[in-house]
Write a structure and sequence with these properties.
It contains 13 helices and 6 strands. It is an alpha/beta fold. Strands 3-2-4-1-5-6 form a 6-stranded parallel β-sheet, with helices on both faces. Helix 11 runs antiparallel to helix 12. The radius of gyration is 20 Å and the shape is globular.
Length: 304
Amino acid sequence: MSTPKHLLIIAGPTAVGKTSLSIQLARHFNTEIISADSRQMYKEISIGTAKPGIEEQQGIKHHFIDCISIQQPYSVGDYEKEVLKKLDELFKKHQLVIMCGGSGLFIDAVCKGFDEGLVTDVEVKNNIEEQYKEKGLSWLQEEIKKHDPVYFDKADINNPRRLMRALEIITITGLPYSSFRKNKTAERNFSVIKILVNEERERLYDKINRRVDKMMESCFLQEAESVYAYKNLNALNTVGYKELFDYLDKKTSLDKAIELVKQHTRNYAKRQLTWFRKDESYETFLPTDAEKIIAYVDLILQHS
C-alpha cells in the first residue's frame, strides 16, 4: 500500500511570519516549499513582494518564486495546473510538501479547484469597473465575446454587472466563465493539512508598518521606478507599487504614498484573514508555534 501524501498549507496575512515558520517546518520534515504568493513569482519585483532571498531560504528548495516575467500573462488557472504537476514530482520524494503564502484563491485552486462564488479580487474588479466607465458597454461586450463566446451567446449582454463579474472571473482564473460549475470540488490524490498563522491585530499591524519602512530603506522606490514603464500590467496592479506609481506620477507626496502603502497593506491583511476564516478546516497557530504545529502535523501523519 502506498504512503498517503499530504500538502501542508501555511497560510495567513502578509508580514505575520509565514516564511520563516515554513522554513523551520521544511527543515524538520525534510521537504520543499511551494510559494502561494501571487506576486513573488515575478522576476522583476522582489522588495515590494517581500520575496525571500537565497540567504533567507536557508538552503530549503522553494518553487514558484522568480519563475516568470511581469510581461507574461499568468492566471491562477495556470498556477493550479503547474503546481499540481510539480506536486506529482515532489510526492515521489516526499510524504509531505509545504505550501506557504497568503493568496487564498491560489491555495484553494490547488486544494479543491475553483468555486465561482469564491473567485474574487478587489483590484481586478476595480480595474474592470474603471475601464467600463471609460470605454462603455460595447467594450465590455467585446471582451466577453473575445474571451468566452459560449457565455456571450447565452448571456444578457445588456447587463453590465453580470458581464463585469464574468470578465473578473475570466481575468483571475484564465478560464472561460462558462466552464464553471458551482460547488464542484475537484478530486486530488493527496490530503491537505491547513494551518492559519495569525496573531494579535496591533502586533500584526506594527509588523506591517515596520516591514514597509524596511522596504523603503531597501530601495523599494528604485524598484518601482525600474518597472514604472509597465505600470499598467496586471502583475503590478497591486498594493505598494500602485501607491509609489502615484508618487512618480506626481499625484501625491512620497510621505503620503508610504502612509498609503501601510494603510492599504493593513487593509489587505484584513481581507486575507476574512478569506481564510471562512474555511473551518484551518487550525490557527501563532507564528512562534513551530513545535506545536510539528506535534499537530505528526499526529495527523501517524493516523493516516
